[in-house]
Fold this sequence. Notes:
60% of the residues lie in helices and 0% in strands. By secondary structure, it is mainly alpha-helical. It has one domain (1-55). Helix 1 (15-32) crosses helix 2.
Amino acid sequence: xxxDLTRRVTITMDDELVKKIYNLQSxxxxxxKNRVSFSDIVNQELKRSLxxxxx
Length: 55
């Protein structure tokens, strides 16, 4: 049995953050040569940030 734990969430971001995420996304697309969604990058960066700052 597989349980999908993804959830659709709406957030508001500053333009500066959106630009940085688009930049990271473009770098990943060049590196991987396949589809990389905006959500993939947001999740990746949130995980990285939370992992380095555990509380």
